Amino acid sequence: IKTHTFEFFLQNRFYLFISCAFCHYQAWVRLLWLLLVGVGPGSRAQQGTQPQSIKIEGDITLGGLFPVHSRGPAGVPCGEVKKEKGIHRLEAMMYALDQINSDPDLLPNITLGARILDTCSRDTYALEQSLTFVQALIQKDNSDVRCSNGEPPIIPKPERVVGVIGASGSSVSIMVANVLRLFAIPQISYASTAPELSDNSRYEFFSRVVPPDSYQAQAMLDIVKAMGWNYVSTLASEGNYGESGVDAFQQISREAGGLCIAQSIKIPREPKPGEFDKIIKRLMETSNARGVIIFANEDDIKRVLQAAKKSNLTGHFLFVGSDSWGAKISPIQDQEDVAEGAVTILPKRASIDGFDQYFTSRSLENNRRNIWFAEFWEDDFKCKLTRPGIKYELGRRKCTGDERISRDSQYEQEGKVQFVIDAVYAMAHALHSMHTDLCPGSMGVCDKMDPVEGRMLLQYIHGVNFNGSAGTGVMFNENGDAPGRYDIFQYQMSNISNPGYRNIGQWTNHLRLNLEEMQWSGGDRKIPESVCSFPCESGERKKMVKGVPCCWHCELCDGYQYLLDEFTCDMCPYDMRPLKNRTGCRPTPIIKLEWSSPWAIIPVFLAILGILATTGVIATFIRFNDTPIVRASGRELSYVLLTGIFLIYLITFLMIAEPSVAVCAFRRLFLGLGMCISYSAMLTKTNRIYRIFEQGKKSVTPPKFISPTSQLIITFILISVQLLGVFIWFGVMPPHTIIDYEEQKPPNPEFARGVLKCDMSDLSLILCLSYSLVLMITCTVYAIKSRGVPETFNEAKPIGFTMYTTCIVWLAFVPIFFGTAQSTEKMFIQTTTLTVSMSLSATVSLGMLYIPKVYVIIFHPEQNVQKRKRSFKAVVQAATVSTRLSQKSSDKQNGESKIEPDRSQ
Question: Same structural domain for residues 662 and 800?
């Protein structure tokens, strides 16, 4: 080849072939070969491979690419005729051309022609067919070619295609766009939606009147979010449409956040047997992801539904289908129960009434320009046309030619017809604007538009803005994409008279979805859930699963925690407890020991009885103050001791009273004072008896400090020690009240209470009583030492029994008091234990020391008489006898003979 044109082509275009060679190697090698050997009609005719095409004459020629036939089996490029996607769309282009050519206002005095080709739904075959559109741009030098008579050959000049309408499938459009870009031929598609085609740097001459799948993906994402789903799977047919659609959906969902992809499954071009069963099994591995986003062709959709039904999963999967599903019946035929509730989207469109009138009026006689119409006729009416050289098939009726579309066959306008018409009109409006600017006032095509410059035409295409065939605006953005306008459908079967697709919303840059019109399997109106993890209950925080932002585990904010935010539990302040729903904190109720509480009733009852009894004893002693029994009991110390007993009973009321500064002060003062007074008096008595008894063993001289005055002084000295300690305590730490929130803080915060109490810890309480306990123990020791005193001699033995019993009471008090330190009702138990123990010890003292005397005074006054006054000498004799008796008792135990005691005393 020695053409300067082709050398220039190779120099400037060859690098573009190399860039695409890796994608479709065989197709590009074949293309390169065809370009090298020539693609003119003559060369094709010589090879006998002239492609069938529709040729419509006109001043300006447009190309057309339509899938008139389906993909053929192996080795055969074309299969059966496609009535809707092929013939309907093809006729829509011719209808649009007729409308434009008859419009006096659009391209006046200019006729649009067309060269329409069949792509056979195969990208490589479509690539070969599209070479027809670039024939006129490849001029060869035929100066060295001569006919047999020496004349130069007459080669008809191919028509120049200024723009192409098509193609249908995205993979076909991508293949063709690579060729048309080399020759600067604008292309407007009516059905290709792959997001890849929005790349202006690679497909700058490509435009489309349908929105790209990136808009569709955004619409599907908005639908998913509107239904509250955050965990879905994706399913895509292998190829540009399916894979690009899912990629766009995943990309948009990542950018938006809040949605996770559980499974992303690809359906092979040539699925093996059992492939769809495996797909369903994979989807069930993440069964919570009930929502399935599906970008697939009709056949794959149908087989997915069949596999789901076979696996008895009817109603489990909730499909959201792309426009390849749309509102079509064929993908769901015989699988309606599985498809129930499926939400699908479709570019907003309308049925064009003018096209219906046009197409239904087509017949074999008036539509000879469509070379494939006879084939459509046979398929539509299920008859056979007789052609010369073709034998008539037996068993199939003969076509009469009188059949009519829609009357004798089922007819429904194909969904993309509107977009085919809009694509043709967009090209026409661009040419009209171009003609107005370049050829003002000129009739027909002027020199500036002969030929039409492709790059300039592309700018006019991007600038069009008109109302399309459905009344919606037709325009393009900087990438050549149309605005996103979608109708949203749901396939419904229940509660409607006519099962089918129901329009439930629209999407035009934002979603408008009527959720109340949606219904699901069995007519349920509640939107099913497709989430990885269900929302946490009130008071539960989310513990995220690493790497999966839509999945989490719910953990309860336990104890005294509340939900700070959806991921964090925090502790309530020490004086508060969480709300029941744990969304915040509330103040902890404050309590105190109430008078009506069982913990208070028993101690108060005992104290009242004790106070009445003590008052009675004091009154009796005062009334019979000069009687021998009262005088013999040591009146001065007895009144002191009875005062202490009275104060012991009185402290019960202070311990139960509502804490205040005054109450707390009196508690400190009187808690140990009553016991201190009682045991100081008893210790002084027992000590006096012991000293007298011991002194009597040694000499007849009486011991010191045994007079009543001395005894009172000793007692008050002992009492002053307690008072001194209390007043020091007052100075170091003034009394005040506190609210203890730890005492009643059980695991269940509903039972938490703050306890109003005085600032007396367990340790300070024991220290307050410790001096009295020392006096009590010391008194008990002296009582034990004085046990040898004769019973009729004095009060030594009653005091001894009193102290023994008191020790037992306080020994029981210690484990009860400290054993309940961990109880949630510690304050109540300890207060009751303390007051009851004090009342019991006071009652023991009162009962053993004074009740018998009161009994004698009141009921046996004859015994309340003066007895012989004992001198210290008598005490000494009694002590001597007592010593002898003890020795004899000891000798008897050692086996010695029994000695009768001396009873002369």
Answer: yes
